[in-house]
Amino acid sequence: MIDHIGIAVSDLARSRGFYDMALAPLGIAAVMEVTEEMTGGHGAHLGYGRADKPFFWIGSGRPAGPGTHVAFAASDRAAVDAFHAAALAAGGRDNGAPGLRPEYHPGYYGAFVLDPDGNNIEAVHHGAAP
To answer: Would the pTM count as exceeding 0.70?
Structure first.
């Protein structure tokens, strides 16, 4: 089990705006901030999670690059749909509309967007096969 993951972003403020909107339908919010001063000049970081437990971090201080894929669990298909709509409204680019992905497994319902740095961000609900 992974405790937390972090990705580099090129513009922390822009990415915060994106992730604040995109992750809200999944019940995920910014719960911790670490400043550049706190890291001794190694970038600023923002932790997203639930109940004051960050598990997804974005941060400056390293070169950002596309290619990272992060999937967030959604409580149901409606949350996947809401994530996709919110992420697009926040400036994300569509990388796979909400829908069943039976090639992954029966009942896999996901949606994919590219964040401002080109990372592939997904919301997925593992439901019963239709």
So the answer is: yes
